[in-house]
Design a protein that fits this description.
235 residues; alpha/beta; Rossmann fold; Arc Repressor Mutant, subunit A; 2 domains; 5-stranded parallel beta sheet; 48% helix; globular
């Protein structure tokens, strides 16, 4: 279960009366300016309406339950945790609710993980508004959205098997280990990571050891250097 020690800042908005017949979108992103921009973009469309906004995991989960959206637009990185974990929680209580992951992180690293966790699509924040709106409508129609480049990559993996993947080192990590790796690369200490993820420092240290083993790194200094060079948040 997703937990949070901090007070949730979620805007559970009710849908206006003049939005009858529109498809409802709930936006989860920990940057207020990004949320506002996404909300304005969605509200400008004749067939879409924003039914709520959130910036964290725990509060957003409760608000999504209450708002009953037709689609959740979810960032991979949140202020108190990981969007993939929130995705899994959403799918556990409503397996049929479409979730479109939106992120600045490399699609080659996260798309397959997101789809395995139940997402209906993954789109980079660098894409233009019309591409994002097309992705939203595609997911709302029951289809899967990924970029053309990622679609070709996934097809190659399916046809050629693991040997054809050109596997990245981080592909060996579990979702939780990748989350810890990303936070290490962002310069966070074991204590800070433990507090954000509501885990013990001992558990975080165990994750660090597993990460070092899987990436063939011998010291904490090597792990930090590799994480800074390769973590999405450090780019």
């Amino acid at each position: 279960m997703v937990k949070s020690k901090t007070k949730s800042l979620v805007h559970a908005q009710s849908t206006p009366h003049d939005s009858a017949g529109k498809r409802k979108v709930f936006i989860v992103d920990d940057h207020p300016i990004v949320r506002q921009g996404l909300a304005q973009m969605v509200e400008s469309e004749a067939d879409l309406a924003v039914c709520g906004q959130g910036e964290d995991t725990y509060g957003s989960l409760a608000a999504i339950r209450a708002a009953k959206p037709d689609l959740v637009l979810l960032d991979v990185s949140l202020k108190d945790g990981d969007g993939l974990e929130l995705l899994k929680e959403i799918k556990s209580f409503n397996p049929d609710l479409p979730v479109l992951m939106l992120s600045m992180h490399d699609e080659a690293l996260y798309t397959e993980r997101a789809l395995r966790a139940g997402a209906s699509g993954y789109i980079m924040k660098q894409e233009g508004p019309q591409t994002l709106l097309s992705a939203i409508r595609k997911v709302l129609s029951g289809q899967i959205y990924v970029s053309d480049k990622m679609s070709a990559t996934l097809l190659q993996r399916m046809v050629g098997g693991r040997k054809s993947m050109g596997q990245m080192p981080m592909d060996r990590l579990t979702d939780r280990e990748l989350e810890v790796f990303r936070m290490i690369g962002a310069g966070q200490s074991a204590k800070e990571i433990a507090e954000k993820l509501c885990l013990s420092v001992k558990t975080i240290e165990a994750h660090r050891e597993h990460i070092k083993e899987k990436l063939n790194l011998k010291t904490s200094a090597e792990l930090l250097r590799f994480a800074v060079q390769n973590s999405p948040d450090s780019r």
